[in-house]
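Summary for the steering committee. The consortium agreed at its last meeting that each partner would contribute one worked example illustrating the joint modelling workflow. Our contribution is presented below. We chose a case with several input lines so that the handling of multiple components could be demonstrated. No manual editing was applied between input and output; the record is shown as generated.
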Amino acid sequence: MTDTAVPTAHPSGLEPADTRAPLEQRRIVATQIPGPKSTQLHEKRTHSVARGLGTVLPVFLDRADGAILLDVDGNQIIDLASGIAVTSLGHNHPALTKAVRDQAEKFLHTCYMVTEYPGYSDVCERLNAIAPGDSDKRSALFTTGAEALENAVKISRAYTGRTDIVVFDHAYHGRTLFTLGMTSKEAPYKAGFGPFPAHIHRAPLAYPLRWEGGRDKCTEEALTAFEDLLERVGPQNVAAAVIESIQGEGGFIVPPEGFFAGIREITARHGILLVADEVQSGMGRTGTMLAIEHDDVVPDLICTAKALAGGMPLSAVTGPAQVMDVVGPGGLGGTYAGSPLSCAAALAVFDELEKDDELLGSAARIEAAVRRHLEPLVSGSDGNGIVAEVRGRGAMMAIEICKPGTIDADPEATKAIAAACHAQGVLVLTCGTYNNVLRLLPPLVIGDELLDDGLSILAGAIRSVAEADGA
Ligand code: PLZ
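What follows is the complete predicted structure of the assembly.
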């Protein structure tokens, strides 16, 4: 169904690499969503795909452009998910598509451990340059976010000669067995898959909305709890503390000011490496290359993935040469780690993000629009409303949905709001330990009109679900 498309420029303003007409950046609801063709394809897939693979919105895509997903039924859906914070430059970005196409015509694969290619070291140089701190840096490339986290743990253990890892409540670090041990939430991630590796300890996360002692005490008490945990474990046993700069799957939780600085001070005092998981929050998502920059903290190791290669699988661990180079040749790698196609894509992503301030600046524009549409819906002191909080940074924003005027999580209302958005052609995701957070991860290139349209639909859905709840 390309007849809905009219020739317009890609929202990046660049000439399209695709010879077909770009998709008009506008929402079109042509059928029920999912439509008949998607429904049929979904039914078919149940006979071939394992049931463990869930889908947020079971529509089948024909193509995608900018912030628009065109499904096989001709619906044009506004993408406020970016494939979970991956396609930050938007779909079918001309520079990205061209970089991958050009590399594909040269060679697809050599395995970096067999023969080298310049793209790999070029990506490492770019990553080293954006990592905070003055030390000389090194990077190693992998394929998935979980793999980056696994390798950060391996490197931390090798460097410190210690065994234990501290993670935080609500954390998400991946689905491999070690990272599942680091991930907090039981269902659907961990249920049935244990036992998990030992030597992983969990500290409370400074979660202002839900901190029992209140927002004002959140940083101080969370840091005390972290120190208490270290005392129990024995800080001399702890190789690394691993933390998301803004928690992703756990509910887009932004710790209050001073929390990261405190964690940095405590870990440094005990010779514990601080690993920042920037898999979801990094690469421009929050308006800076890394979200940890907002806190002015220098972690030891940084894990990036997702938006790093804009949709091609690539992840990385970056840190001081002194730490990274403790592992000798042959100690790190993987058949596909740092694939040439992914490296070519990542270089295009770096070029675009660093070209001018427009893309990174777009994160602030997106945050302002989200706040403008959704903050008026935050529950007032009169106990009305189901939006307990609007939070996040830049293009990583979320709202927490609770029973009217309380902080009792309301996963049913959250689900109903997401479903109403999906039915109207707006793709939003949910997250959170209590399944009551709606998250917004639009591509940075999304235009104001499209964003306003998507956010109006979301605000309308919240209002009608709240009314039905009697709020
Ligand atoms: N660290 C902070 O957000 C991936 C997971 C989706 P992989 N988040 C999306 C799902 O349900 O599987 C993630 C993350 C943070 C690590 C990861 C893991 O990255 O590339 O999915 O392995």
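Residues 265 and 297 are 10 Å apart (CA to CA). The radius of gyration is 22 Å.
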